[in-house]
Write a structure and sequence with these properties.
Helix content is 98%, strand content 0%. It is mostly helical.
């Protein structure tokens, strides 16, 4: 009788150990999955930042281009005015 009880206890302990092992494994997998998710999110954030920076750069370049064009137009206008004034002086 005692032997049977001992065997039952042993079986129960083994089962408990197996359950513990499985729980540990599950926990480990869960943590790894969470870590992967975090890494993925970080990568996406970095990608978004890159795109944002790219857009800002393009905007700045566009603004600079417009400013240069404006300056060119102003210079041309000044030249024209200057030429007109010189033309009048000759009259």
């Amino acid at each position: 009788m005692e032997k049977e009880e001992e065997e039952e206890e042993e079986e129960e302990e083994e089962e408990e150990e197996m359950v513990e092992e499985m729980e540990k494994e599950e926990e480990k997998e869960k943590e790894e999955k969470e870590e992967e998710e975090m890494e993925k999110e970080e990568e996406e954030e970095e990608e978004m930042e890159k795109e944002e920076e790219e857009m800002e750069k393009e905007e700045e370049e566009e603004e600079e281009k417009e400013e240069k064009e404006e300056e060119e137009m102003e210079k041309e206008e000044e030249e024209e005015e200057k030429n007109e004034n010189e033309g009048r002086k000759e009259w």
